[in-house]
Amino acid sequence: MSVSGAVYPFMGDSSMFIPPPDLQFEEYCVSCDYGTVNPTSMGLWGRMGDTWYRLRESYYDARKVGKSRTDEEHYDSLEELLGELLPTAVIVDPSAASFIEVIERHGRYPVVRADNNVIDGIRKTSQALRDREIVICDTCTDAIREFSLYRWDENKPMDTVIKRDDHAMDDIRYFVSYIKANEEPLHFAFIERT
């Protein structure tokens, strides 16, 4: 596989993807990049110690299927992804106002509007992947596919990604930005309890 222009070239190594570990996770989160015509990508994350695992995903491509989903249908997919699990947060694409409203109206999951700073988010995600703070499980086939396709636009003078094959990439970036923003308060709370 060619890695020329790849945003995450080191993710071409198959050892970066592991089977979901058989663990009792300490907490769960979901990250979501929302689309009506473009794909909607949701990832379920489980934390054990200092590591978050992307355990499974829901990926719906309306163009490929030939049918758009309503916000309620996307919510049904969120419930199916979580099953009986209750997440600490569902981190959602900040432009998805109608979907955020549906999640809030159901009142079951706490929803957080994602930080959508692309370049800073990519930098944080790259470091988190290299440091194994986040690990992608081999069950997340659409995320793995997008890692192999996600590219910098080499025709632009500034750091710019090509807006294609980026929906799982966006939801992963939203997740990392969220955990990084909450890293210090969570660490401080842990110190206070001991």
Topology at a glance:
Layout (H helix, E strand, L loop, with lengths): L16 E2 L8 E7 L6 E9 L2 E10 L1 H4 L5 H12 L6 E4 L4 H10 L4 E3 L4 H13 L3 E4 L3 H9 L17 H15 L1 H11 L1
Parallel strand pairs: 1-7, 2-5, 4-7, 5-6
Antiparallel strand pairs: 2-3, 3-4
Describe this structure in words.
The protein is α/β, with parallel strands linked by helices. Helix content is 38%, strand content 20%. It has 7 helices and 7 strands, in the order ββββααβαβαβααα. The protein has helices spanning 62-65, 71-82, 97-106, 118-130, 141-149, 167-181, 183-193; strands spanning 17-18, 27-33, 40-48, 51-60, 89-92, 111-113, 134-137. It has a 7-stranded mixed β-sheet. Helix 4 (118-130) packs across helix 6 (167-181). The radius of gyration is 16 Å and the shape is globular.
Low-confidence spans: 185-194
The overall pLDDT, averaged over residues, is 91
In N-to-C order, the SSE pattern is EEEEHHEHEHEHHH
The end-to-end distance, rounded to whole angstroms, is 48 Å
Question: Rounded to an integer, what's the Rg over CA atoms?
Answer: 16 Å
The profile of the biggest β sheet is:
7 strands, mixed
Percent range for β-strand residues: 15-25%
Assign a percent range to the helix content.
25-40%
Q: Could you give the order of strands across the largest sheet? A: 1-7-4-3-2-5-6
Secondary-structure content class: alpha/beta
Q: What is the count of DSSP helices, taking H or I runs of 4+ residues?
A: 7
Globally, the shape reads: globular
The number of strands is: 7
